[in-house]
Amino acid sequence: MGTAVGYALRKLSVYVSAVAMILFTIVHITLLKFLSFVSPGLMRKIHLKMGEKSTMTQNPKFRYEDWGPTFFSLRFIKAVLSVNWCSLGLEAFEGHAAPDTALFTLDGQKTSIHRFLKGNRPLVLSFGSCT
Length: 131
Fold this sequence. Notes:
Strand content: under 5%
Keywords: Membrane, Oxidoreductase, Selenocysteine, Thyroid hormones biosynthesis, Transmembrane, Transmembrane helix
InterPro entries: Iodothyronine_deiodinase
GO molecular function, one term: thyroxine 5'-deiodinase activity
Function: Responsible for the deiodination of T4 (3,5,3',5'-tetraiodothyronine).
Transmembrane segments: 12-35
Helix content: 40-55%
Number of domains: 1
Radius of gyration: 20 Å
Distance between the termini: 47 Å
Largest sheet: 2 strands, antiparallel
């Protein structure tokens, strides 16, 4: 399999997995919302199990009542879907150009990584603390 065909197949798999993740999210939220009407106790158990995986239940001051109901808010659903939509197809492959990832400046302006490229000069991204 040629490198161009291999790259195209990998890129296609990124899109398919992103769309699958968006569909999974929609189905997951819909089923949990339905379950909240049918059996609120069971839905709470499922939520708490999910919270254990993400360590949300380890903080005694952060009760289920603080985070549980937000799973069904329009704001939460929009946030999850917009993150998945914005990152649709953004995957780095060795030997190919890096994706132009959206980011925000310190003053809240939306920009992109490619805006900071200058000629052939390498761009170094640091995801750590300078302190």
